Amino acid sequence: MKTWDIIVIGAGPAGMSAAIEARRHSLSVLLLDEHAAAGGQIYKGIARARPRLLAGLGPSYAAGREIVLSFETCGAVHVRGASCWHIDPDGQVTWSQEGMARQARAKRIIIATGAQERPFPIPGWTLPGVMSAGAAQIALKTGESAAPGAVFAGSGPLLLLVAAQYLRLGVPVRAVIDTTPPANYFRALAHPKSLASGAGLLATGLGLLWRIRRAGVPIYFGAGDIRASGKDRLQAMTFRHAGRLRRLEVYNLFLHQGVIPNAPLAVAAGCRRVWDQDQLCWRVEADDEGRTSERPILLAGDASRIIGAECAPLSGRLSALAAAHDLGQLDEGAYRREAAALKAELKRKTAARVFVDTLYRPSDAVRIPSDPQTVICRCESVRADDARLFARSGGLDINQFKSEQRCGMGPCQGRMCALTLGAIVGSELGRDAALLAPPRARPPICPVPLGELASLAAKSERA
Amino acid sequence: MESGSDVLVIGGGLQGTAAAFYLARQGVSVQVLEKDYVARHASGVNAGGVRTLNRHFAELPLSVAAKATWLSIDELLGDDCGFRPVGQIRVAETEQALEQLRARSNAVAELGLPYAERIIDHRELYERLPALVPGCIGGAFVPDDGYANPYRTTLAFKRAAVQAGAFFHEGTAVVGIAREQGGWTVTAAGGGRFRAQVLLNCAGAWGHRIAAMLGDDVPLSPNGSMLMITARLPPMVRPVVGAVGRSLSFKQFPNGTVLIGGGHRAPVDIDRNQSRVSLPGLASAARTAIELFPFMAGAQAVRFWSGIEGFMPDGLPIIGPSLSAPGAYHAFGFSAHGFQLGPAVGEVLADLAIRGASRIAIDAFSVGRATCSAAA
C-alpha cells in the first residue's frame, strides 16, 4: 500500500487550506471528503449555486468559491463520497466509498471534520417538524428547500443568519425566539478587548437583527422554557417571555444553540480530550498547531476548537505547515517564521471570538433540561430524569450510565446526548465538568455494512 | 486510619463481586477494593456468553455448578441479569467436524456429571437455526446455555453484596500489600489503609501484579478480545452459535442487535486502561458471520470494542491458594471465558476464605501447576 505524506479528512475551509498548503511544500496529499463536492458545510453546494441563491445566502458564502477553486487546482487527490469510519493511530485510514471499504496510509493525518450543532434538548424536540437551524440551512443550500412560517428558536450567530437568509429569499418567518441570557450582553460588552475586535461581528449581528425586524418578524429576546408539542408531529410551541407564557401554532421549529467541535475520528483513534470551560464542551486536546496526543494525527479548523469559517483556513495552513516540517520539507528557520506569522494572524482574527463566545455562552437552562421527562438520548429513549437518578444514586462516571442504560450506544453514537448527559451529571454531583471523564467513543464512527467490513479480510489475506 | 474486615477482595469484577456477595451472605465482613469502578473492565464488556458447551473438561464441574445458579439467578439476586437460556449450538459443517463433536459428547458423558452435549442431526440443526447457510451437517446442542448482560450481572452481584453488608471502595487502586500482625495490610493510592485476615486476588488482567506482591509469579498476558455489535435486525437467530474450526461467537439479543465475537485479539495498555481494535481480526469475524448466516451481509456494524482481559498460556484460570502467602487466594486469568463461571467461582472463593477448602475441584487451576511455571 502506498504511503501518502498527508491524508486530509474534510473539504471545508480548514481541510482545503491544509491541502493547498501541504501541496505548496510538495507533499503528496490525499483528501477524503464525504460529500459530492468540496466546500464542507459552510460552502456546501457552492460550485453549483445559482446566482439567486448566492445573493440570498450572502457574501460570506460566495467567498468560498475562491478557496474551492484553489483547492481543486492544487494537485491534491480529492476523493468524493468517502465516509471515513476508522483511523488507526499508526496512520491507516479506513473509509466507505460506493459500498466498498477502502484503506490508505499516511505519515500524517489532518482531521478537519468541522463542527456539529450543540444538542438542545427541549420537551418535544424529537417530534417531526422540529429540526436544527443548521439542518434547515443545509436544506436551503443543497435543495433550495425551505419551510415557510417556521419559528427559529435558540441562540447564536447561525440562528439569526438562517432567519435572515430565509427572508432574503422571500420565505416568510413566523418568529425568532432568542434565548441569549440578557446578562450575556453586558458581559460581552464589558470585555474591552473583545469589543474592539468584535465590533465587526457586532455590526453584522445588528444588521441581521435589523433585517429581521424590518420584515415584520417578531423577535422575543431573553426567552426561555421552550416546549414543542403535538400529536405525531409538531403542532404548537410554548415559551416564556417577559414573564408571560406564550403559545404559537407552528409546524416547523428550527432550534440552535451554537456549534461545538466534531472530531469523532480523532476520539475513537485514542486522542486525549479536555473539557473546555469557555466553550462548555469536550474537545480533542490539541496545541496551537493542531498536534494531538497521537503523533500522526493533527486537527484543523472547528474540529479542534470553534474558530469559525474565516479563521479556519489559517488553522488548516498551520497544521499542514507542522506536518511539512515533521516530514522534513522545510527548515527550522522557515518553519518558525511562517508558523509565527500564521499564529499572529490567527490570534488577531480569533480575538473577536471572545465577544461571540461570551455573548452566546449557553446558559445552564439550555444545557440541562429542567423538565425531567425530556428525552436526552433519542436513540435509546433515555430521559433527563434517568440521568439525574443515576447521579444521585452514587454514579461517578458517565460511562457507567452509558453501560447501564445504553445512553450513547445507539446509531448516533453519543453525538446528541453526550454533552447533555455530562451537564446533568456534572450539575447533580456539583462537580466541575473538567473532572468528569467524557464518554468513551468506539469505532466505527458511522455504521458500516458487515459485507464491507468483511471485504477487508479478503484484502489483507491477498496483500 | 485503617479500615478492617474479615476479608479484603482486590478487584470489583464479576469474580470479586460474586465472592463478596457469598461472603457477606454468610455474615463475613468484606471490603472490595476496585481501582476504577465495578464492572469497568472485562466483566462489563464481554460477550455475555453463559456457556458450558465446549469447555475444557477441568472447568466442567465449576461450570455445571454455575449453571444451576444461573437458572435461578433472579431469585438469588432479585435481578434476572438479562439471562436468557436460549440454548447454544456448535455447528459442524463437515462430517469430520461432526465426528469430533460426537467423540467429545461421548467423553463428556463419561465424566459422570449431570451434563450432556447432545448431538443433533441435520434436520434438528435447521429447525433450530433456519437462517444457517445450507450444507451444514449437524451440531452439538446444550439447551440451557444462553447469554446474559455482563455489566448488569456484575452490578446485580454488587448490589446484593452491599445489601448483605459488604463495602465497596471504588477509585481505590492497591499499591502495597504487607503481612502484619498475622493479617494483611493493604495500602491504596491516595493513602487508604485496609486490614483483613484473608485476601482474595480477583484483579483480572492485573491479577499477576497483585500475585507478584504476594510472591507468586504468574505468566499472565493482558490482551483484548474484540467484539462488534450491529444495528437492530429482525429476529433470525435464537440460540447462541459457534462452529467447529471457526473463531466465532454469534448471538442475537431480544432487541434485535447481533453480537459477533470470536476471540480475535487486539492490543491493550493496562496502565492507561486502553484497548484498541485491529481491523483484520474484525473483518475476519464479519466474514465468518456472513459465511454462516448469509443474511448478515446487510447488517450494519455500529460499534467495535475490546475490553482488557487476562490470558493464561494454557487457557485455564488461576483459582486457589497462593503458594507463597498464607490466607491469600487467587481467582483471575479467565482467558475470555470466565463470565459463566462467575457465580460458582464466587462460591468457591467464599469457601476458601472461610474453610480453606473448596467443595468443587479446582486443582487444575492451581497457581503452581506445571504448565504455568514461568521463566522466572
Description:
The complex is a heterodimer of chains A (463) and B (376). Chain A is an alpha/beta fold. In chain A, 39% of the residues lie in helices and 22% in strands. Chain A has helices at residues 13-24, 51-57, 59-62, 64-72, 133-143, 157-168, 182-190, 192-214, 264-268, 312-326, 332-359, 364-367, 384-392, 398-405, 418-429, 450-462; strands at 3-9, 29-32, 77-79, 83-88, 92-97, 100-111, 115-117, 130-132, 150-155, 173-178, 219-220, 224-229, 236-241, 244-249, 253-257, 259-261, 273-276, 281-284, 297-299, 375-377, 382-383, 448-449. In chain A, the strands form 6 sheets. In chain A, strands 1, 2, 3, 4, 5, 6 and 19 form a 7-stranded mixed beta sheet that branches. In chain A, strand 1, helix 1 and strand 2 (29-32) form a beta-alpha-beta unit. With 376 residues, chain B is α+β, with helices and mostly antiparallel strands. Helices cover 28% and strands 27% of the residues of chain B. In chain B, a hairpin with a 4-residue loop joins strand 10 (183-188) and strand 11 (193-201). In chain B, helix 1 (14-25) runs parallel beside helix 7 (150-163), helix 1 (14-25) packs across helix 10 and helix 3 crosses helix 10. The mean pLDDT of chain B is 96. The A-B interface holds A 86, 88-89, 94, 270, 396-397, 399-400, 403-404, 409-411, 413, 442-444, 447-451, 453-458, 460 and B 36-37, 39-40, 44-45, 151-152, 155, 170-171, 228, 230-231, 274, 276-277, 279-280, 282-284, 286-287, 289-290, 296-305. Strand 22 of chain A pairs antiparallel with strand 19 (300-306) of chain B, so a sheet runs across the interface.
